[in-house]
């Protein structure tokens, strides 16, 4: 028995029978499931298909990936049941600055030459319009590194794209908190410097005031002395 195939981006009307009819021509199928919400029993938009033989699953994956089913292109990959691997971000890259005409299939075709691609996805808004960035998940970190090395800062459909490793939410939050602490510490240092500078300026002003006061006293004393000499003659 082969490992299960993950089939995503399914139309809400796709059932197990529909999936079976699509995948059965590629070989004997052992298991088909469309995942549903427990409360509403509505489709969650993805499912799993398991073939009796791996070569049948590989053939189906190569042939059907991003093919349309009820008007929606299917996203397919080998199912990853290890949640820690999926969430770790290993082999996962984010591509920013994508042209509007880049879809999941174009992303897959572009990046698959650097290594085995487990999944590719262009992020869209609620109206189905691309938001200008997407994700590609490689089977190995080496594939991700090579893609970044070759395509980061290059033109893709006349758009300059930036590519970097995807960082999980927890790691991004930790980095933001660390940056906030650094900025706060810097602000406090700047305040200390400002206070010190003001104190130094005040001291200088006081010193200047003392100097002028002494000069004034000397001038008065000299004037009085000269006047007394004049009166004596």
From TrEMBL:
<feature type="transmembrane region" description="Helical">
    <location>
        <begin position="211"/>
        <end position="228"/>
    </location>
</feature>
<keyword id="KW-0539">Nucleus</keyword>
<dbReference type="Pfam" id="PF00076">
    <property type="entry name" value="RRM_1"/>
</dbReference>
<protein>
    <recommendedName>
        <fullName>RRM domain-containing protein</fullName>
    </recommendedName>
</protein>
<dbReference type="InterPro" id="IPR050502">
    <property type="entry name" value="Euk_RNA-bind_prot"/>
</dbReference>
<keyword id="KW-0472">Membrane</keyword>
<feature type="domain" description="RRM">
    <location>
        <begin position="91"/>
        <end position="168"/>
    </location>
</feature>
<dbReference type="InterPro" id="IPR012677">
    <property type="entry name" value="Nucleotide-bd_a/b_plait_sf"/>
</dbReference>
<keyword id="KW-0694">RNA-binding</keyword>
<dbReference type="InterPro" id="IPR035979">
    <property type="entry name" value="RBD_domain_sf"/>
</dbReference>
<dbReference type="GO" id="GO:0005737">
    <property type="term" value="C:cytoplasm"/>
</dbReference>
<keyword id="KW-0677">Repeat</keyword>
<feature type="domain" description="RRM">
    <location>
        <begin position="3"/>
        <end position="81"/>
    </location>
</feature>
<feature type="transmembrane region" description="Helical">
    <location>
        <begin position="18"/>
        <end position="35"/>
    </location>
</feature>
<keyword id="KW-0963">Cytoplasm</keyword>
<keyword id="KW-0812">Transmembrane</keyword>
<dbReference type="GO" id="GO:0003729">
    <property type="term" value="F:mRNA binding"/>
</dbReference>
<dbReference type="InterPro" id="IPR000504">
    <property type="entry name" value="RRM_dom"/>
</dbReference>
<keyword id="KW-1133">Transmembrane helix</keyword>
<dbReference type="GO" id="GO:0005634">
    <property type="term" value="C:nucleus"/>
</dbReference>
């Amino acid at each position: 028995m082969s490992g299960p195939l993950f089939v995503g981006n399914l139309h809400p009307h796709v059932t197990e029978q529909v999936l079976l009819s699509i995948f059965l021509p590629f070989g004997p199928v052992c298991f088909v499931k469309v995942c549903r919400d427990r409360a509403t029993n509505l489709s969650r938009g993805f499912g799993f298909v398991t073939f009796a033989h791996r070569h049948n699953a590989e053939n189906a994956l190569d042939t059907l990936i991003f093919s349309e089913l009820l008007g929606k292109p299917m996203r397919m990959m080998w199912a990853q049941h290890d949640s820690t691997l999926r969430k770790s971000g290993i082999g996962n890259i984010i591509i920013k600055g994508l042209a509007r005409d880049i879809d999941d299939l174009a992303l897959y075709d572009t990046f698959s030459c650097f290594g085995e691609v487990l999944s590719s996805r262009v992020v869209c808004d609620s109206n189905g319009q691309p938001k200008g960035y997407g994700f590609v998940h490689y089977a190995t970190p080496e594939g991700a590194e090579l893609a970044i090395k070759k395509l980061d800062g290059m033109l893709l459909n006349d758009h300059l794209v930036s590519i970097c490793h995807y960082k999980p939410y927890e790691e991004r939050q930790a980095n933001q908190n660390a940056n906030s602490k650094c900025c706060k510490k810097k602000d406090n240092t700047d305040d200390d410097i400002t206070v010190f500078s003001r104190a130094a300026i005040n001291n200088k002003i006081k010193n200047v005031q003392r100097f002028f006061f002494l000069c004034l006293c000397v001038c008065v004393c000299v004037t009085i002395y000269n006047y007394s000499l004049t009166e004596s003659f």
